[in-house]
Amino acid sequence: MGGVLRQAFQLLDGVENAASAADAGRVFFSKLRALGFGAIFARSHAITADDPREYIYYRETPKGWNDVYAQRGFAQTNFVTRGARRRASPFVWSSVSGLEERHKPSDREMWAVLHDFGLNDGIAIPSHGPGYLGVISLAWTRFEHSEEFRRAVVLASQFVHERMLELSPPDIDAIRLSPRERDCLAFVAQGKSDWDISQIMSIAESTVHAHVERAKKKLGVKTRMQAVAKLARAGEL
Predict the structure, then answer these.
(1) Which residues of 5-33 are buried (b: 16+ CB within 10 A; e: fewer)?
(2) Does residue 116 sit in the same domain as residue 227?
(3) Nearest CA among 160, 88, 92 for reference residue 121
(4) pLDDT in tens, 148-191
(5) 93 and 79 Cβ atoms separated by less than 8 Å
(6) Measured between alpha carbons, how far apart are the two ends of the chain, in Å?
(7) For the chain, which ranges sit under pLDDT 50?
(8) 187 and 115 share one domain
(9) How far apart, in whole angstroms, are the C-alpha atoms of residue 50 and residue 212?
């Protein structure tokens, strides 16, 4: 166990001094990136299906991944998210989509896209608490490490998620955007029009407009740029 703790502490160096949840994720992933990891997604969301609250602490993905993710509608079919909702213990991604649902076309499609981006597998570390489901999900381009190192990654990830919770803005509960609303605002932040976003996400232009307007109302702002700024300050963009 001593080796696991030592490696976990090495991965956590600098996390305790992070000024924000996003900083904590950035410091943590800077070490993993050099070890063959290609993406991180850290978040918490409300435990009930009718409560849309979700908070994204930090994400870093290959260039172009977020566009494809939104366009293909993976937010609704993501097998990693599905697995994290059902489990409390860490799991390798392929172990989830390799169970009874391995023949889902949506799973095969997402695996194909992951491989196109050089992401060959990953590990999800659930971190659930009262009223919410939390997870840090890590994808790797290669994994040439021992089982001891994998346990160190799990241990460090659990600490990082707790640190992110501590550093969350006080108005976390006020941000109650759906995945579609958040995706639309992310594209607005990139300077894309409603028509551009409709083409990327394969939805009607009027639907994009409705998503953005609902997001503005939920965030309590008047303009699109104010919505983008508020989401960015909260670390969700």
Answers:
(1) eebbeebbeebeebebbbbbbbbbbebbe
(2) no
(3) 92
(4) 999 999 999 999 998 998 887 645 445 678 888 988 988 888 88
(5) yes
(6) 37
(7) 99-101, 170, 172-173
(8) no
(9) 20
